[in-house]
Design goal:
Layout lengths: L2 H16 L6 H10 L6 H13 L3 E3 L5 E3 L1 H9 L8 H12 L10 E10 L3 H13 L7 E5 L4 E2 L2 E2 L4 E7 L2 H9 L5 E11 L2 E10 L7 H7 L5 H7 L2 E11 L3 H14 L4 E4 L15 E7 L3 H8 L5 E10 L4 E2 H4 L2
Antiparallel strand pairs: 1-2, 3-7, 3-13, 4-7, 4-14, 5-6, 8-9, 8-10, 10-12, 11-12
Length: 329
């Protein structure tokens, strides 16, 4: 298959991957058209026959086609260079998709989706509780689901439990709703001493990676969130953002309101044009540091409980998330 044909095939797979349900040729053509990629239904049927033959898709009758496990793997590995900057683009898309209303405490927020073995649940829950109690989580709410339950698009598999933790990108959505645009600079490892942030030890720019930085740091065993929760000294996940200078005071007030609503996570907001924890900022901008939403799962991984993590997993109603004191009993 030549390069042009392969890209068309992958465009179709990508549409199916982003759908919550099987799609027929008409719906696939409509989705492609919205993305600025014109493809006739006849052409789509041709490529679907190829993907069926290769085991990348499967027919579910009149409802259309859906991706197979092999199809998902193919889509993940194909054209990795094209995906550089994907994390930054997804963050912007989810920010725009939020409809959370801070005053009412209702609406959708961005969450991370994580899994671990049910057999290790007792240990994992205790570790997560300590992280939340230490204030090293993004917000104070989460959702926990057992086998057969659904969190966003994920159906929890037998022998597993799933966790939805608030993603730090939710801060961007709250600020945007108040007219404050946010620029995502990087995700990194933040050194804590005496419970206070000191400096970034490692950073990964959002626009130069195909994976979320904290996912990488967790699997690289580079965090010490459990230690930070127990002693105040350790290395946690955090991100660095910038906002306009004129919005700094409004952002501080919003940060306090988010904290009271259980959505807090802003650690620091800097001074206009001044470095924040040794990180320089542009003129007319203010630095802002936000805790990583996957910090509880980093602590779970640190104690030997394997986790599967998808940062910026989906949007969930804030009302579906409960205080950690209720969930992590």
């Amino acid at each position: 298959m030549d390069e042009r044909s392969r890209r068309k095939l992958l465009d179709i797979l990508r549409v199916l991957a982003e759908a919550d349900r099987p799609l027929g040729g008409t719906r696939i053509a409509h989705a492609l058209n919205l993305a600025g990629k014109d493809m006739s239904q006849r052409t789509i049927r041709y490529y679907l026959n190829l993907t069926d033959a290769e085991g990348l898709t499967e027919s579910v009758g009149r409802r259309g086609r859906q991706l197979t496990t092999r199809g998902k793997a193919e889509l993940e590995s194909a054209y990795v260079v094209d995906k550089v900057g994907f994390v930054a683009a997804r963050a912007d898309a989810l920010t725009y998709g939020m409809n959370f209303r801070l005053r009412q405490g209702k609406g959708s927020v961005v969450v991370n989706i994580s899994t671990f073995e049910t057999a290790r649940a007792g240990h994992a829950i205790e570790v997560m509780r300590r992280v939340y109690q230490a204030g090293l989580s993004m917000g104070q709410r989460l959702a926990l689901a057992g086998a057969g339950a659904r969190l966003g698009r994920l159906v929890v598999q037998p022998g597993e439990m799933a966790v939805a933790t608030i993603c730090s990108i939710s801060v961007n959505g709250v600020l945007l709703a108040e007219g404050i645009p946010t620029t995502n600079r990087f995700g990194g490892l933040l050194q804590m001493r005496g419970g206070k942030p000191q400096r970034f030890l490692q950073i990964i720019n959002y626009d130069g990676t195909t994976l979320d930085p904290l996912e990488i740091f967790i699997k690289g065993q580079m965090t010490s969130v459990s230690q930070a929760a127990a002693t105040g000294d350790g290395v946690v996940g955090a991100s660095f953002r910038e906002i306009p200078t004129q919005a700094a005071e409004a952002a501080r007030r919003l940060g306090a309101r988010m904290e009271r609503a259980g959505l807090g996570g802003i650690l620091m907001i800097g001074r206009p044009g001044q470095p924040l924890l040794e990180v320089p900022v542009s003129q007319g901008r203010v630095g802002m540091i936000v805790l990583g939403g996957l910090n509880p799962m980093a602590a779970v991984e640190e104690v030997g409980v394997p986790t599967g993590n998808r940062a910026m997993g989906t949007l969930l109603p804030f009302e579906d998330l409960r205080p950690f004191t209720e969930v992590l009993r």
